[in-house]
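Below is how a single chain appears once it has passed through the pipeline. First comes the sequence as given, then the structure the pipeline wrote out for it. We keep one example in the README because the format questions we get most often are answered faster by looking than by reading.
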Amino acid sequence: MHRLAVVVALCLGIACAAAVAPPKWPTTYLVEGTISIPYFNITEPVTTNYDGLNNRQRFDFYNELTTNIYDYRNGAGFEVVPRIDRKVCFKSNVAGGSLINVLPDLSNYQYQGLTRVNGWLVENWELTLRNFSAVQKYNMYLYREPGHQGVARPIQFYMSGRNAIFDSHSDIYIMNYHLYQPGFSTPQAYAIPSVCSQSAALPATPSGKKLSVLRKMFQASPVPDHNDEVAAQFAAHAHKFGKVYADHSEYSMRLNIFRKNLEYIEQYNKKDTGMKLAMNHFGDMTYDEIVDVMLPLAKKYCMPARAQPQHTRCDKAVRRAPSTPVDHQIDPRELAALPGAIDWVAKGAVTPVKDQGSWTFGTTGTLEGAWFLKTGKLVSLSEQQIVDCAWGYEWSGPSGNLGCDGGYASGAIQWVIDNGGIALEESYPYLMQDAWCLKTDRSSGVKVQAYVNVSASEAALQMAVATAGPVAVAIDASHPEFLFYSSGVFYLAECKNDANDLDHEVLAVGYGTENGQDYWLVKNSWSTHWGENGYVKMARNRGNNCGIATQANYAII
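Resulting structure:
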């Protein structure tokens, strides 16, 4: 009799669980919460106003530090971000875009019973996607009054997904909901900010990486076709880099992009060039997407005057910094006395490869190296402080640094000089967005006396690398061969070296010779999944290939 009662109880429990229906979220709501990305040690406050009826949405990050407003019905998008001590606006045409629902559609999720999350006794709804051996899980935890008759309240969304900033590794993404107001809608939330009505508003938005994170978090990927060999490779690629796609349409589009990139890599590797390409985290991205995310200088408005050809002028007058840089000249006798190879990584003067993609890492890299040479101590300096504080520095208007949207090492170093120092990364961490300038943080103790504009020759660059340590350099990185570089000495006849063709800041950390080919050892910031564990050997003494010696700078501590 007792055993029968237990069986009946279990059956009732199963029937009860089976009767639980997933909630249907409202078409308008207000949500406040935090997004946590453990890999980056980031917990980011976010607020969103969602208006599905009028096809519009607003996001505020870090308590309105940055604001994104999208009116898809009228095709108008606005992004308001800090610029040192005031805010600026980027405008964009968003016609054809779609809303990001931070309350995921649970129609395909399965009820897993009750559990405790953040102190709440919650329902656990789970979606599992299997891509060959890969398993992708999404969990939505929500609270309802006993009996499941009350309005569902979101508590936490948890996913095992990709690093959506750079697509470079699997990771965990968590959304904790602190405030939920169903049916909430106010026209004031979608009013055009006053700064966006001014003529100074910039005509293009930054890359939108942050919204891409949200879109990928809340829209699950479909299961691939297992009968296609390339699709199988694509599924393995998606698992390795934690790729998540919005729907079947996007999955198919990304698969086709992957096919084309894979074919390009395979065809190139049939050539006898001494250099090899390999599939990496860019494999499912179009060329334009990679440029937009990874090469912000490719979208530059104009170059600083010293880098312009004689016949070219910026749209505004150049304002020189009060500390005038000096040109580095080279004596042939000094060059002959230099060592045949230098590796500052092996000497301990270079911090680990980062997974940021920020243009400022070239600046911090040369400062870190110079500090190491002077003190014997290696410190990691704050890229975020330069992003926040060196806006437009040294040059007026849009011709200077543009926060997260790109800039130049010389102006960034000049800002460090004028500021009297720079923060440590641990005290001023990278946020992956523009933020208010906190220039008073000089916690590193690093002070810069001056910086050097190295003369535009490989001989001068060799002297600088050998005697001054790591040097910030700009290159033409806009070629597929560079994007998918894997090993060997990189040389490309089509790679340009004019100042106006340079679109990526990197760090020259040494030089040497491999299989009879002279090379520069260059540190990138595209994670260790790219190149040779994050580094590339670039051709040396071959006509300044890719412009590596065109615009080089280093600091004097």
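The radius of gyration is 26 Å.

See the next section for the split statistics.
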